[in-house]
Amino acid sequence: MADHLDLEKVxxxxxxxxxxxxYDDWATSYDQxxxxxxxxRGHELIVARVRDLLADDAAILxxxxxxGTVGMAAKAHGFTCVDAMDLSLGMLEIAxxxxxxxxxxxxxxGEPLDYADDSxxxxxxSGVFTPGHAPPSSFAELIRVVKPGGLICFxxxxxxxxxGFVELFDALIAEGRWExxxxxxPFFSMPDGEPEVxxxxxxxxxx
Length: 207
Ligand SMILES: C[S@@+](CC[C@H](N)C(=O)[O-])C[C@H]1O[C@@H](n2cnc3c(N)ncnc32)[C@H](O)[C@@H]1O
Description:
Layout: H1 8-11, H2 16-37, H3 42-51, E1 60-63, H4 69-76, E2 82-86, H5 89-97, E3 103-106, E4 120-129, H6 138-145, E5 146-157, H7 165-174, E6 178-183, E7 187-188, E8 198-206
Parallel strand pairs: 1-2, 1-4, 2-3, 4-5
Antiparallel strand pairs: 5-8, 6-8, 7-8
Helix pairs in contact: 2-5, 3-4
The site of S-adenosylmethionine has 21 residues, from helix 2, helix 3, helix 4 and strand 4.
């Protein structure tokens, strides 16, 4: 196996600049390590989960797109209109090279996003809601950019759940902002490299 990045470096990044730099530096070897060697499959599972709920030409935002694994899976499943957004330009350059995205743009989850209200039929996000990464406050903007009736489907780290997420999910349901469609079963997301790590897929419909 090639040299691997110690994942603690990204989980324990002290601030956004450190996190961005860690991903910029990791970009060219990320796919080999995480998908090839560690067997990560969250990107495929979230695309498969929404496949039958969306038209082929549904407008989809891949939030925290990284190197473009969701875009690749979406193309394989027949989706034709997927945009990529991430804080790391280095990761996005790898994503852009794959040729599967309509638009590729830097953005920061937890801050205002550069998209109009109701721009998308769905947001997909794989591997981004995990310790040291995007905060619960990301969801206000994700709900804003999704049309009423649209979907938000994402993985959330489950064995070491970052604080504030589930409480926020319940609050957004109580406020009538979204409805829970499905809380998936936990799964081992990187069985060949980080065998203790579990994620769960959450699927909400925006009201
Ligand atoms: C583990 S990677 C997952 C990449 C891709 N979605 C996948 O499933 O392979 C996490 C990605 O989230 C991005 N990220 C982390 N925090 C973010 C934030 N606050 N806003 C935007 N992107 C963020 C990182 O730059 C990185 O590309």
